[in-house]
Amino acid sequence: MLLVLVLLFVVVPLAELYVIIQVGQAIGALATIALLLADSLLGAWLARSQGRAVWRRFQEALAAGRVPAREVLDGALVIAGGALLLAPGFLTDVVGALLLIPPSRALARHAVARGARGRLLTGLAGATARRDGAPPLASGLRRGRDRARDRSPPPAPVIGPEHETARSPERDDAAFGDAVTFTFADLDERLYGSARLGLSPGPPPAASGLGALFVDDELVALDAAGGIELGAPGDWTRLEAGDVRAAIVEPLQAWEVAYDGEGGGFELRFEALGEPAEIGGGAAIDGAALHGYEQLCRVTGGARAGDRRWRVECLGQRGHQWGAPDWERIELARMVSVWFEEGDGIALASVRPAGAPGHEAEAMSASRLAQPAPIAQALLSTALDGEGRQRRAGLELRGGEDDAAIERIAGEAVCGTTLDLGRLRLEQAFFHWRSDGRRGAGRYDVLRRA
Length: 450
Hints:
eleven-stranded antiparallel β-sheet, nine-stranded antiparallel β-sheet, alpha+beta, AttH-like fold
């Protein structure tokens, strides 16, 4: 902070004075004063015109029901740019003009947003390094309506590093499968992606890979490959199938994943922000032979689409699921995730029996992600479009039967795709979520009988 104050109040004024003197010696004192006045008038005009444009976009965002985060940041940058142009000086005029011109202001906005989010995510990642065995919790983490905060801490997770190995069925079952899934969403860049690798014990052992990338809410790359025979049983330490590959850097802590599609791809590192949350281990879902765990992650790396390149730094999720679902008895299975920018997360899995009419018949398992704690009661409502794809959704969460407070989360699909997998169909969507002024992103996937 001291260095910043010295820079603002000592270094910048001295540099401005030096430049003014040099310009005065070159063009004369009166011409220099006239130039400074012209800069100030131009700055006032630019600040007024750009301020109106930002205010108009702010109102449009509110009318659309969207949190105007980008517009608020634009407004702050316009105010800063106008102040710098009004202040006497040539150096501040240049910086102020850059903040008022939309293209350069966009670069500044992304830099500020990434810097703020990077500090937040770095703090969260550091919280996972606690050595006392307690569940990690970042100081200053906004916990919203966390129902478990006044209760005893949850029991230690039953998931350990041994679960990072490839799973095998307890008995021979041709329907058994083992899969890991990586998903991420960069709200500022409007980048969304997923990668999934699957293993089947065989014989013969085989692998599958699925990768997808969305840019500006549009699908730019989608590739799937299945039935890739392996010379030996696959292992999650390092696996490649089709255009997708992944490796474990540190069990339950860090992973690397890459998708190299024809239309785009990504190469990312996922770092866990908390202990694994067991999903699907409840008795009702266990009847569908589904098991697994999910982890909220900090995601860093790069993405590409055509000639465009992005540096990715956002939240995401890594999951490991295995089991032998009987699709003669199952209508569909869902996985819903919410990743709030503050570092909180929620994961929900549900299974609907064949012939059941709606959500009320589904068996659900839900948990918080940043500091894993089971959610006792979870209600999910979904609005579908004319083709039966998820478009809007609402979550109502309650920590326990004695907890009357309800946390409500509303979401809307921003992009998605449908993939035919033979007898099954995968409907994948990325959602923007909001709750009590917080915003976030996440996935809403539905796997159903075709």
